[in-house]
Here is the input.
Amino acid sequence: MESTLAEPALRRPPAREPLIALSGVEKVYRTGKLEYRALRGIDLEIAEGDLVAVVGPSGSGKTTILNLVTGIDRPSAGEVVVDGRELGRMSEEELAVWRGATVGLVFQFFQLLPTLSALENAVLPLDFARRGTKRERFERAQRNLELVGLGEKADHLPAELSGGEQQRVAIARSLAADPKLIVGDEPTGNLDTATALEMFELLSRLNAEGKTVVYVTHDRDLARRASRIVAIRDGVVVDDPGG
Here is the structure.
């Protein structure tokens, strides 16, 4: 006799919560009686492990989005949730601690301290966070320099390094706390084309190893290398195939 029991339904894995979720986000900057609406109601979700390029003309709101996602700035309206935390509800002190543990920042102009060696620059976030012993902090910073291909130049000052090498130090510094999220604001904007491609390959490799990478760029070729492109214009998302 055939069994009348129904086959068990296949269970789908639960949908992952996004690492980054912006809901109805607005940002208004005020100077005296003047106000400028940088963002006009942004809805954006980015999953853990994504490699996302944010593009758009100057003044479109790209950097404002990055500043909100990293807790450097706060929204005028709406919610910014990153890694399960609503950033608008956190104090400045809480944001500083959270940012140091969760986000690695890479800037266009490197922002290395000129009187410190590559190794000393790479260890700075760990010193500020007072993570581990001094020896452990320097060992981790050395490993990060080796990861970006600068292990042999740990004792060099920034002035003794090329632009691409300085940006590698900046990336090593961003990895200090082993963050989930790496955010770059024009991270290749101050580099020649060949070096910019090298920097992208490094960011792509970090993404392949599990880091979520979000970067702003004006370079269309570099943007096309991302797995997803979010286009911003006049403070709104105008194109997002992954949204």
Observations:
- Residues 54 and 130 are 33 Å apart (CA to CA).
- The chain has seven helices and ten strands.
